[in-house]
Design goal:
about 140 residues, alpha+beta, Aminopeptidase, 6-stranded mixed sheet, 6 strands, about 35% strand, globular
Amino acid sequence: MADVRAVRLEVFVEEQNVPVELEYDALDATSVHLLARAADGTPVGTGRLIHGAEALAETGRPGVVLLGRLAVSKRVRGTGLGAALVRAIEDEGRERGGLELELHAQVAALGFYEKLGYVAFGDVYPDAGIPHRSMTKRLAR
């Protein structure tokens, strides 16, 4: 978890000025965390899957799992790592019985997720002072 937290600190807290007290939450303890490392072992990407009772409490919809805290270090953006992390989180969601994956995307990242098959819904809303929009995708079996 120290390496996961280090990537999130770099991307969200230092780069995007998200308050550190908002970045880490109780869902970290029950989520599945993925971590990507560069060839030299340096952590460069992460994301988490919220599933089970926690996902149901967040969405109110059975069968929905949540992708969150997707972060890729600036030095490896544009390499396909972000898309690979999303696909891996989708796989984890399927393994845990997820039928649909929901995420809360920064508006600036909507195009990235749309290319991966996600569809936006609802209005734009602030999260940690950054405009976001919810997105969803059916998880094919």
